[in-house]
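Holo model, magnesium ion. Inputs:
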Amino acid sequence: MEKKKQEVILSIKDVSKSFPGVKALDQVSIDVLRGTVHGVVGENGAGKSTLMKILSGVFQKESGTVIFDGETIKNTSPIQSMKSGLSIIYQELNLVNTMSVGENIYLGRFREMDGMRGTHTKAKELLESIGCTIDTYKLVSELSVSEKQMVEITKALSFDSKLIIMDEPSSSLTADEMKELVNIIHHLKEQGISIIYISHKLDEIFDFCDIVTVMRDGHVIDTKPTSAFTRSDMIAKMVGRTIENEYPERPHCVGETLLEVRSLNTNKLHDISFELKKGEILGLVGLVGAGRTEIVRAIFGADKVKGQQLFIDGKLVKINKPIDAKNAGMALVPEDRKLQGLVLPFSVEANISMASFEKMTKFGFLKRSTEKEIAERQVKALGVKTPSIKTKVKSLSGGNQQKCIVGRWLENNPRILILDEPTRGIDVGAKYEIYVLMKQIAESGGSVILISSELPEVLNMSNRVLTINEGRITGEFNPQAVTPDQIMEKALGLGKEELKS
Ligand SMILES: Nc1ncnc2c1ncn2[C@@H]1O[C@H](COP(=O)(O)OP(=O)(O)OP(=O)(O)O)[C@@H](O)[C@H]1O
Ligand SMILES: [Mg+2]
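Output:
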């Protein structure tokens, strides 16, 4: 007997799209069912965002058909697609910072809402319908990332969305905020709304997606119920080969002290002192806002600090600016790569080679051939997917932009490599490459400081872990000898009273 089929809300058939030098989508076909959470996974540059931008009318497809809610969609625009019930929430959220929450939700529709009072009343109702209590008069600029996301979701609901696309929504959320998002997703699903959920975090995919599509190089490789996938099967389909382990073995040749940090104090940090050994990967674990980024920025001379003393190989070094840190053999891959690192209108080549000026200049002249060599080496080492090294960074996929910054700093052969959330938005295969590079630096006598909100990543790669809470070091652990719970307890600041006494 034939099973009753669930209704298809969105049918994508044979959709293709090219950019200069890349076939971003090649005859992609996917059906999304009503009231389901449909995960989409794939390596950086696989075509996930491009497909979503076609659905939402940002890009036009070259061929193929899209049927949404029974209607064939032709050359739609973002506003049209929203009105037809299809909304997209980008990673770089799309709200007007200088306007209030309510105004953002009903942007351009105040008249339909009977003016401002009506706008705010309706916005409040809708926010409450997803269990959200943000004041609708608050300015968007005053909201946290997760609150902004809630506003975006509410905006989507205000258009009576039947399908909401979320493109890597979780990459800047804390664990608690993520829980809230999952609740909202369940809530939307109960109302018969479908969600397309894109993420590189496979735990999330397995947690709450009903069906998963794996994409690779512009193709759909497989679509099936999540329960029919194993983790390694999904990874193999994403990267096109089997990956035995998600983490290489951690380095195991810890030697004498390479870097010593003494009495680091700022408004936010309190008496931070620790040592970093040669051959070691040191993990910093803490909640978002605990002060991990501040610690490494202070060490690197990116923020002004009072009274800190840094010793490298036992010698006092003065680090007042990032250039001093670089000259002392340090490199920092910052957390917010768009703000602190990438120059989007510049080429891949320029972005990668930017910090290797000495290597590229001879008698004051820029050696183009070296610039090219550097870029090509890193593009190969990290598998940056780009038509050429001359391509502008802004046209690369999110994860590939990230790899360019990592490559820039690796090119300096740092002795002390500091990585702040290095694998955010990066696919499984490339994560592994980054872990291997960390290990190589450690095993050649250097050391690595790793900040990551992905606990399994820190615990699997570090030789030692420091927990940070409210600007203080609250614990030191060998991650192989304790449970993750013991580490989290200190990272959450529990048992702090005993520590003080
Ligand atoms: N505006 C653009 N101009 C030129 N090429 C583009 C543009 N947008 C995307 N591409 C290319 O299309 C391909 C697919 O990119 P897309 O952003 O869809 O990947 P993705 O699967 O979302 O990757 P990620 O996981 O890194 O976000 C990539 O090769 C990318 O360089
Ligand atoms: Mg993307």
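The longest strand covers residues 8-19. Residues 110 and 116 are 6 Å apart (CA to CA).
Archived with the compound record.
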